[in-house]
Amino acid sequence: MLNQTPASSSSTAVTYETNLSIDERDVVMKNLHKLLKSHNREQLGGEHKQPGCSRQADVDSQTPEALAERACQPLPSKLPFAIACDGNYSALKSTIVNNKLLGCFVIGGECRLCFPQVRALCLGEISTQQIDEAMQFLAIANALASEEQLIELKRAGLAHPSLSKCELITKTNAERLISVLHSGGTPPMDDSQRSQLLSLKVVHDCFGGCSAFLYPDLSPTPCFECRTCYRMFKPEDFCRHTHQPTSDKNICFWGFDASNWAYYIRVDDSEAMPTEEDEQRFVIFIQGYPNHQI
């Protein structure tokens, strides 16, 4: 742990006190060098590089104290949503989509899924032609796995050993694709049951948006009734449900996670301002719903 001590009035020097041994300090400084080489390179004129990178000579010429001070400062960024990732794009991880556990790589804060696995587990009954047409309509373009990623996918049994290439689809695009190809939900409830329940108008704006009636008394069974098709949904399924899928190529869809449904769904204010009682009922529903993420 490095502790900065105030300099005297006659000097502008900065000193540091540390309880680390010499060997431990060498390890720390070695790691700081690696960190700065990876993330703190400054831009060079006319060269292609990531924001916030610096010249190798600048890194090597700095003192350990200066490196330690810079390492504690936030990384500069010119991107509005830049996220520092671990840099190991070949580390196979897992995520859940449509209640299926899928393998993925995390790149730039977004999960990229093995597309053959998505097709097999989430779209198994959908024809290839339907999938291709939906992807074209949604303007979804998959990336190809790198050689290292392909090796990891084969090693984990997620890609066939004979594959020479494998597509990766972002988790957000996988959710969009599933929402278009799967009606989802359960059949509409009986009118007699509906008349005995208190409802709350809610809405979400994901992938084109949708409005519904929420019946809190039905929780944790499907309790969101789509106002268009009247099918019943759980909140994590309703937040991706839409009858007006967005296909604008100029829109970037990024970072969607159905487990964050409580951040996507809100009380509908399109027809009238929701009352304080309505807002409170919705808050109580969120807090009481099993495994909510807020």
UniProtKB/TrEMBL annotation:
GO CC terms of this entry: cytoplasm; nucleus; transcription regulator complex
Listed Gene3D superfamilies: SAND domain-like, Ski
Single GO term (MF): DNA-binding transcription factor activity, RNA polymerase II-specific
c-SKI SMAD4-binding domain sequence ranges: 199-280
GO BP annotations, alphabetical order: negative regulation of BMP signaling pathway
Family membership noted in the UniProt record: Belongs to the SKI family.
Protein name: C-SKI SMAD4-binding domain-containing protein
